[in-house]
Amino acid sequence: MSGTPGADRQGFLALELDGDGSHPAAWRKARHAPDELLNGSRIRSTVLAAESAGFHVATFADGPVGAGSDVVGRVNALQRAAFAGPVTGSIVLVPEVDTVYTEPFHISTQLASLDYVSGGRAGWLVAASGSAEEAAAVGRSFVEGNALAQEAAASVEVSRRLWDSWEDDAVIGDVATGRYLDVDKLHYVDFETPADFVGAGYSVKGPSIIPRPLQGQLPVVAQASLLPSSVDAVLVSTPTTSLLIEELAEVRARRTVVGGGPAVVAELDVVLDSRGQSASTRLAELEAHTPWASSRARFVGTAAELVDFLADVLAVADGVRLHPAVLDVELEELAQLVLPELRRRGALKPVAQGGTFRELLGLGRPTSRYASPAAAVVGTGN
Amino acid sequence: MTQHNRAKFRPSGKIQFGIFFQGVNSGTIWKAPESGSQTDFESFRRIAQTAERGLFAAFFLGEGLRLREHLGRPHALDVAGRPDAQTMLAALASVTSNIGLVATQNTTYNDPADLAHRLASLDVLSGGRAAWNVVTTDNAWTGANFRRGGYLDHADRYLHAEAFVETAKGIWDSWEDGAVSSSVSADSWAVPSHARSVHHSGQHYSVDVTPRLPRSAQYRPVLFQAGDSPEGRDFAARQADVIFSAHPKFDDAVEFRADIVSRSLAAGRAANDVQIMPASEFILAASDEEAREKKEWVRSLQIGPQQAVAYLEQFWGRELSAYDPDGPLPEIDPVVEETCETRGSGFHGAKARQLAEQWRAEAKEKGLSIRQFVSSRTARVDSTFTGSYAAVADTLAEYARVGAVDGFNISPWLIPTGLDDIVNHLVPELQERGVYPTEYVGSTLRENLGLATPVRAERNFRLTRSH
Lengths: 382, 467
Fold this sequence. Notes:
The complex is a heterodimer.
Chain A: E1 12-16, H1 40-53, E2 57-60, H2 77-84, E3 92-98, H3 104-117, E4 124-127, H4 132-137, H5 146-164, E5 171-174, E6 179-181, E7 191-192, E8 203-204, E9 220-223, E10 233-236, H6 241-255, E11 263-272, H7 279-289, E12 297-301, H8 303-314, E13 319-324, H9 327-344, H10 357-360, H11 373-376
Parallel strand pairs in A: 1-2, 1-13, 2-3, 3-4, 4-9, 9-10, 10-11, 11-12, 11-13
Antiparallel strand pairs in A: 5-6, 7-8
Helix pairs in contact in A: 1-9, 2-3, 3-5, 8-9
Chain B: H1 3-7, E1 16-21, H2 41-53, E2 58-61, E3 69-70, E4 73-74, H3 85-93, E5 100-106, H4 112-125, E6 130-135, H5 140-143, H6 157-172, E7 198-201, E8 206-209, E9 222-225, H7 230-239, E10 242-243, H8 250-266, E11 275-276, E12 279-285, H9 288-302, H10 305-316, H11 352-366, H12 370-378, E13 384-388, H13 389-402, E14 407-410, H14 420-432, H15 445-449, E15 463-464
Parallel strand pairs in B: 1-2, 1-14, 2-5, 5-6, 6-9, 7-15, 9-10, 10-11, 12-13, 12-14
Antiparallel strand pairs in B: 3-4, 7-8
Helix pairs in contact in B: 3-4, 4-6, 7-8, 10-12, 13-14
């Protein structure tokens, strides 16, 4: 991304919006009844609160719930993001979407559609489920280990090709010739899984059934370990806050060997002092109900301390994704005390009304890979 | 209610409207200056909100699984390119409040756990306004975009579809009522045995699903079905809440109603349990004469000379560009035995040579050119209501009086303004006649359609069947 590590860098902030917060017992401290969690108005109010607080990005977790969590229900993430599209104007909407037990053609179309309904504010948080439950739900063999990364890479590649399969100006509406489409600008993607593919191999013909997404290519976000290439932002997670800055610097160095490289996004759990209660007391109360088994670094402290810490993190990362312990509580503190101060210090990128996710990441709008005569013949294999 | 009453069909005396945003077809005009984007969200928002202003029951979207082709390349002439139905409907859910949101979704190329969860998600997001228009496909051509490929025999598609629907119903019915706590001081978020897992073991797949959502405000998504074969009708009579039929002409509609009533009774359901909404097109104006002129204009823009020749090429399997669109049908024979599926499954399997002979004879007898003939075949002749607002309102009132249909599913020929005259002029005429709702009865689709709350499916749990 742009610039070198230093105090003049500006980053972005993402907020994970699933359920009542990231702590499994968060529902006990929510400002609504449990049976008012899974509906449209809750999604509307949380995403609007995140947008008005000045967050650049909202992410929506998906997949089975239950393991380690009290809350056992979840609305499909991509649909939550789509629902939020028309009622928001600046916040980027990034649902988690599984790549292993889902059809790549459907995913590609759904994500392209999300880009249309959000005006180009969509992204894709790539997940590769390691869950036997999801395998059983679709009647497929359980995929694990290295095969997960292979499934994810294949699914992302199919989507990327399908997004490019309509060149930008494929819809011509030429009344004189009666042609709605210029079929020379539509392309078969002819994807086939590679020969060493561990899971059941498959092929996808194309072209897509929807014109190229508004952004051309939706930014793809993934854990650093899952997708070694073909990502636009990598999520970096460490067990403690003290390791986070060091690890971010290392990832950044590794990833920018040949200029550019994906954006580097730090993952952080957050518990803050609120309404006269210290963060540690609040956390202890939650932990007394259900333990929080998170693999992310955890910040527990005051808003002022968090501002200092985030300023340090944003000096080496392009962005931070915050996982609030209790959404209703942490979001209020973040909105009132943390984001305004970070903005005052110049640590945050401006929020752009109607801006795209690619613009936030400093990425240009790419040309379709099929657009040039040289690229157009690249159609088969991998 | 006595068994006798349940066995007798009672007309509701009302009609409802749905809007079918097709996205891919020859009926949507793109050549007129008034035609807007077929993809931008604003087109969808504009037309959905207009429909809601007109108290429409439902907004339908089709599903695209493979781009139509023409002589081995993507079809160039008609509107094409549409968003994913459920993603678009989820977005529309946030900018509408009463209209039903119907997604056409295929049972062959979706997984039941994934599809049922997404439909349930749409249902809870919209406050109980989701519906599923169940369709099937069996061709490998569509399957080329999916992992499973073309694995399903034609004869199996309804067996598969029915097992799929049963599994989906099981998933939607799995959470107990009141399973989620109503207070943050409850012992747990949901009662420990809040949901039952759903099992299905059959010929095409075996699944074991842990459902993730409570029931919606309308209990579960409404089911629409559109198949017209005897198997399709029986499937609908057993499973569907509403049939999206192809029989809008009065006599056909009455006959179709009688057939569905008898099939519903045979399936153990009540005579009124399955509603019927035929596909339709409206071309309206202040007077009958203006409406007829408008119809000429609409038809000329729907089927231009290129579309007319291309339509025949689909069935002939060869290029026919040397033929004059204003001349007679080609004398040469098709080069294919059967028309292929590339134009969409509705065209699949017709005997090409036989059709060509039949059409030549028909066009000759009626004195029709290629363009006139194709226009007569493709322009929804059977499903078009043309006339003044008052005259069409009188016609529809007669449908309502005898209960020929429960409503019409309107395909607008113009996006996004294609419903404006219907909502502004036809709806008030119908309301004056007392045959159209004057307000939404409730906030869910099931309430607005007047459908009964479904009985919780019990047999789907631990379901083990041959299909």
